Amino acid sequence: MSYSKPWKSYDDQLDLLIERGMTVTDRPHAIDYLERIGYYRLSGYWFAFRERSEPLCLLGEDGRKPKKIREERIALDSFRSGTTFQNAVDLYVFDKQLRLLVMDALERIEIALRVDVSHTLGKLDRFAYIKPELFHEEFSVKLDKDSGVTRYHDWMGKHAQLIGRSKEEFVRHNKTKYGLPLAIWVACEVWDFGTLSTLFNGMREAEQDAIANQYEISNGRMFATWLRSLNYLRNVCAHHSRLWNRNIVDQPKLPSAAELPWIIPFEFDTHARARCFLLLKIASHLLSVVNPRSSWPERMKKHLLDFPDLSHLGLNLAGMGAPAGWETAW
């Protein structure tokens, strides 16, 4: 269908919100936020404030009622009673600070994992990353049915791009003095989280397990799913996207509660496993190994406790997947 929504001035945008039931107590202040943040970005936060339709039964593709009925409530244009423009701003500011705190933790985790991977593979060979025989066959031998190349081949292409466009002095120095390839403990410093997590996923089980064990996780393949999920989390934060109630597409696998007791509230809660609070717990767990003296867990807890008061709209930390009594277990 063609896009029919017209351009609107900031005043018209605000009038539309008021018409739909949003209370605006300081119009100049609200206009200022629309000018600096934008209607569309803020709409991601006030979307949770919109009224919902009665449950609708979604029919199958053939128009018949499916055996398993799935009901859905459609978001209406009108806002719930008591919605204010400031509610959306408060939620936006909370989410912004949440992303900054997450990035702080992920930076430390990423740097530590670079050392773990380069040290473990470097022991096998200084240039291990260009030796496909040092990785498992699903990664280094099996061809993708669409591209016709291995995942290792794709990874090497990304690695080559990062090396080729790097302006870092240490890269120039090593190229000049020793030539290519760079030793793995040098090359890893240009990898981003995605490149790092992909390479870890391609490592053999023995090396994966050795690194995972350092973080009190016995299964390296499961640990690889943690890194993929944290990379997804990093990308959300790096692109300044809404995080607090986002549906986590790349969800991590979890060990048994016997191995890691804090996962008990998440074992059978599909909602909690699909929200960011679980990833915050994973980040906190990894930081307890990377930097046991870090103040990050306390800072994150304080921030979560400062979640804006949106109880009149039925919103709280449960929207992030936080289980009841999370403060005690944190």
Q: How would you describe what is shown here?
A:
With 330 residues, the chain is mainly alpha-helical. It is built from 15 helices and 4 strands. The protein has helices at residues 10-19, 27-36, 39-46, 85-124, 137-140, 151-165, 169-178, 184-187, 193-202, 205-214, 220-238, 270-273, 276-290, 296-305, 326-329; strands at residues 50-52, 56-58, 70-72, 75-79. The strands form 2 sheets. It has a two-stranded antiparallel ribbon. α3 (39-46) packs across α4 (85-124), α6 runs antiparallel to α9 and α10 (205-214) crosses α11. The longest helix has 40 residues, at 85-124. The termini are far apart. The model has no long low-confidence stretch (mean pLDDT 95).
